C-alpha cells in the first residue's frame, strides 16, 4: 500500500506543480517572444538606415558611372583618331616615297639623255666642221 500512497502523493504534487511550471514556462516564452520582437524592430530600423545610406550613395555612383562611360567614349574616339591619323600618315609617306622615286628616276633619265645629247651634239659639231672642209 505504501506504493499506492506514494503514487497518490506524487500525483497530487504534480497536479499542483505542473500548472505553476506551465505558467513559468509561458512567462519565459512570452519574454523570449518579446525579446525577439524588439530585436526584429531594431533590425528593421537598421535595414531602413542602411537603405537610406545606400540611396544617398546612388547619386554619386550614378555620376561615377556616367564619368566612366564618358572616359570610355573618349578612349574609343582617341583610338579611332590615332588609327585614322596613322593610316593617313602611312598613305602620305607612301605617296611621297613614290613621288620622290619617280622624280629621282626622271632626273637620272634626264641626266642620261643629257649625256647622250651631249655626245650627239659633239658628233654634230664635228660633222659640221668636217662638211665645210669637205666642200672646200
Topology overview:
Elements: H1 2-135
Offer a concise description of the structure.
The protein is an all-alpha fold.
Give an overview in words.
This protein is mostly helical and 136 residues long. Helix content is 99%, strand content 0%. It is built from 1 helix and no strands. The mean pLDDT is 84.
Key phrases:
1 helix; 136 residues; rod-shaped; 99% helix; 0% strand; mainly alpha
In terms of quaternary structure, the protein is: single chain
State the shape.
rod-shaped
Low-confidence stretches: none
What's the average pLDDT?
Answer: 84
The computed structural class is mainly alpha
What is the C-alpha radius of gyration, as a whole number of Å? 56 Å
**What is the ordering of alpha helices and beta strands?**
H
Number of helices: 1
Strand count: 0
Largest sheet: none
Strand content: under 5%
Instruction: State the end-to-end CA separation.
Output: 188 Å
Helix content: over 70%
Amino acid at each position: 500500500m505504501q506504493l499506492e500512497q506514494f503514487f497518490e502523493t506524487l500525483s497530487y504534487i504534480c497536479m499542483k506543480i505542473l500548472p505553476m511550471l506551465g505558467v513559468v514556462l509561458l512567462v519565459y516564452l512570452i519574454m523570449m517572444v518579446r525579446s525577439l520582437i524588439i530585436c526584429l524592430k531594431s533590425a528593421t530600423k537598421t535595414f531602413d538606415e542602411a537603405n537610406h545610406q545606400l540611396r544617398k550613395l546612388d547619386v554619386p555612383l550614378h555620376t561615377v558611372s556616367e564619368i566612366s562611360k564618358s572616359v570610355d567614349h573618349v578612349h574609343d574616339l582617341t583610338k579611332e583618331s590615332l588609327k585614322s591619323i596613322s593610316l593617313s600618315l602611312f598613305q602620305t609617306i607612301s605617296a611621297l616615297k613614290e613621288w620622290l622615286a619617280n622624280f629621282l628616276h626622271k632626273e637620272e633619265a634626264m641626266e642620261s639623255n643629257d649625256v647622250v645629247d651631249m655626245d650627239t651634239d659633239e658628233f654634230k659639231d664635228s660633222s659640221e666642221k668636217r662638211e665645210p672642209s669637205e666642200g672646200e
